[in-house]
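User: Can you predict the 3D structure for this chain?
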Amino acid sequence: MCGSRVKLSPFYYLEHFEEILSFLQQNCSALMGPMEVAFQREFQALTQEARALLVRVSNRRGTHARVSGLKYAEIKDIPAALALLQGRGFVREAMAADSDEIWGALTRIEVAALLKPLKGLSSKTKPELLEMARRTGKAAVLPDTIIGDFVFHAQAETVAFLLFLYFGKDRRNLQTLALRDLGIVRARVNQSEFEMRYKTREAAVHDFFHARLSGEISIADQAGLSRLADALPSWPSCPDPAAILVRDREICRLGARLEQAGRWDEALRVYGQAAGHPSRERICRILHSRNELDQVKELLERIISQPSTDEELLFAEDFHARKFGGRKLSRLTHMLRSAPVISLDEAFSDSAEHAVKDYLTRQGERAYRTENHLWTALFGLLFWDLLQGENGETKHNQFEYRPTQLTDGTFFSKNEAAIEQQLSKLLDGTALGCLETTYQAHERAPNGVFSWRRGTLDLIRELILHGSPAGIAAVLRRMAKNPMSDSGFPDLMVVGPSGLRFVEVKAEGDQIRRNQLLQIQVMEKEGFAVEIVRVQWIADPDQAYVVVDVETTGGRAAHHRVTEIGAVKVVEGKVVDTFSTLLNPERTIPRNITRLTGISDEMVKNAPKFSEISGSFREFVGDAVFVAHNASFDHGFIRDEYRRMGENFRRPTLCTVVTMRRFFPGLSSYSLASLTTHFSIPLETHHRALCDAKATAGLLQLINGKRMRGKSNASD
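Assistant: Here is the predicted structure, written as structure tokens:
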């Protein structure tokens, strides 16, 4: 990072909190009630040190603070600041009723000391000690000296609500603003107008309640789950559609916790309070597990006649067909089992999608990894002015980039005519030119819809030139109507002799997710060819390998450079080509490295730089598997050399250290020198790249001999 290091002011956290208060006064005053207004007025009347101390206390976990632990260099008179906060009602003294929270705040040593003379304390963890305190009744009593060392935030809920209005989530610290000032987090610093997150205070209070509730559900014990379930009828509700979704989400989370605990009756009652998916699916599954089939059938038929979502309809039709219609397999399982199988070398198993892409490319087709990115990028570019222009540019705060109309689901209803006008450009053939202009004008601009990637425009060109204009428009229209339908798209786009098609790749053990099936059905309905391909991993005797070794100036790819590359290409078990060159690392080679490798500054001063051989090395590697002894080291250095040039390098890797351990277990050492000695493989000039690469190729032959015979547990 260039330039002088940014230094935050001593009271940076106070400045950030006051920045948020000012923002809320200017942009969200309609959402604040008497308590929030009074808090801001009385907060500003405090001294700077008292305000700073309150923010420090607010940023702590929980609602308490330990007086003896309040030590901040910038606050010179903490006792005076604390006394002022207590006098003005911002904090209060601890009471006996706060004992549970105080016990939790004590250290393990303090808890153990309070439990003496009970036996067996030294071997127990803090949670076990706290449980012992509750069980023995000790938790009911705390010394006054300990209680007196704690204060509690008397307006914690008010502060939490104010932060919720700003961030839109239950957040207790202001770290994001500090990271902005340090230049780590990007922000819309030039934007002056913002939109309220909620239209009414009722909706804001509703979502704040459920945001706080979410944390309680996550950590609740069995008694806590019971309390939450009993209190559910009193949870606030709001007619706003977005608020209904928020409430349903937390109801379903509580229901899931009860299911996990085997509390089926309570789970059914809880799920019954939700209006949307997946609550009715969970009810069906619980009832079916209890053999209450008549109720299951009746509920499924109600869902089919009036589904809340496409996903719920898919579940109901599928479940009904399997349980009451005689079908044995789910639609998802049937589609997967009936998909064609491609057998590929297991060296590609870390990325099935890339493996299939390379396979199709070798068949003479143009294959691209697209998944969701193609469609979200096309959507974001085609509707750029609607999403990022005057209608869509206002956000809830300077850290949010996703357009408001996508967040609240109003994009299509607010812009239907303009959306249809943009979609018509796909039909009349003018869309591509407009997209290229938009891309060039706004490249790399944060937008909250898609990420900028190299080659994105090329993908869009292929889709528009070879895809159905009406089909593309239909998919984008669906995304505009339902912004949540922007996922589940197939992994690959392929252009071949028969035209354009999409391919969903599934490796061994993978399942088709429901949202993926929905997208496949939508795309097929709109005229796209979509197929599912299953990958079976095998030991392919025809697979090409490039065995690589690099010598470097040090051991860390991010900080050191390559001084030599040696590589051999292996096809059908034979070395068919070699690649070897010294490289100028553009820095001094440490003496200890020269002693190890024999490569000196004099030897590399006239050698080519990596950038000068990068093209020929990439061509040499081609679509082969990258093999090395400790492959993460060699591949990592090569990858970082390309990254310095602004290029990517990624190949499937096979590590001979790992695979030798797998196929030849029990050896005393798996270093290259030890293995070559053990198996009588020549290693004439160890720590020179080409020599080490040739020796590693010898190990590869041993490994593939085992792989081809399928004796994964054999040893010599």
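Residues 689-709 form the longest helix (21 residues). The domain at 201-334 is CATH 1.25.40 (Serine Threonine Protein Phosphatase 5, Tetratricopeptide repeat).
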